Give the backbone structure.
Amino acid sequence: MALIELTKGLLPGRYRQMERAEMEERVRKIKEELGTSLFIPGHHYQKDEVIQFADAVGDSLQLAQVSAANRQAEHIVFCGVHFMAETADILTSEAQTVYLPDMRAGCSMADMADIYQTERAWSALQELFGDTIIPLTYVNSTAAIKAFTGRNGGSCVTSSNARSMVEWAFTEKPRILFLPDQHLGRNTAFDIGVPLEKMAVWNPVSDILEFEGNINDIQVILWKGHCSVHENFTVSNIQELRRTRPDMNIIVHPECRREVVALADDNGSTKYIIDAIERAEAGSAWAIGTEMNLVKRIIESHPDKDIVSLNPNMCPCLTMNRIDLPHLLWSLETIAAGERGNVIQVGNETAAEAKLSLARMLMRAY
C-alpha cells in the first residue's frame, strides 16, 4: 500500500491571496536554487499555469520513467494525480522522493477498483472459470491493483500498447480480466477481433458478472469503471458535428465509449492524438475527443489548423486540476525549507509486485 506523509492541514490561505506574478517569481527562484536536485514532471492534462514550470511533459508512465532516469533529481514534484505519483515512486530509487502538491488530486477511474473489491472479484471469477484468466490493468490504477496483476501473472497496459498486451495475454490464458477502464478494454479487445457478445462486465458494487448468454463463451471480463472525462463524449456530439461540419476529422481517445470510437475517424492515445495533429496538413479541420486543457494547448500550438473539442461543453479533468500554481509553490517552498510534505511512498512488497507487472509490459510492448 502507499504510505503518505501529509503536510500540516490544507493549503495555507496566504497562497490564495498572492498575485500570480509573485507566485511565478517564487517558483522560478526555488527552481534556480534547487537546481538539478529538483525535477517537475507535468502531465498533459495540467493547467498552463503549472505546465509552464514542468521540466518534462507527457503521459503518466513516460513521466515516471523519465523521473527514474534522472538520477540527479532528489525531489520529484509530480504534477499529475495520485496513481501517477505512485508509479513514479515505484520506479525511482530510494535516494529520490516523490511529492504530490495536492493530495486531493486523485483519479475517479483508478478509485473505481480498490484492492478489496478486486480480490473479492478474483475469488468469485476463479470459482466460475478456474485458472483460465489473466489480469491486465491500465496504468491508470492504484499501486495495489498493479501489484495484484503482478502477483497473478498479469501485466499493466497503456493506451498506446493495450493492443499488443491484450494479444500477449491471450497467449497466456483463454480469458482476460481488464481493470479498471471498461471502455479501453472493450475497444482494444474488439480491435483484435473479440466480438462484443463474448465480453462480460464485472460490477464491483453488486459483485455480479453482467452477461447474457453462456458464460463459457466469455473471453474478456471488463471491470465496470470508466474515465469521467472521456465518457462525456457522446454519439450525439459526433452526429451534430457530422451535420454542421462534415469537413471535420474526428479523433478520440480509446477511453471513450465503444459507440463513440466506432463513429470517429480515428482513435488513439494522448501521444497518438498529439502526433496526428502535428502531422496533419495546414488548413485541415479536427474535432478532438480528449481532456480540455490538452485540447486548448493543441489549438494554441496549431494556429494553421481548425481545431475544436468534440464536446463544446466539456470541462477539464477536475481532479487533475487540483494541482494549481498555489499548491505547486507551497510544495516547493516546503521542500526548500527542508521539510517533508505530501510525500508518496509505496510499501516495498507492493512496489516489488507492481514493478513486476510493469516489467512484463515493458519487455513486450515497446
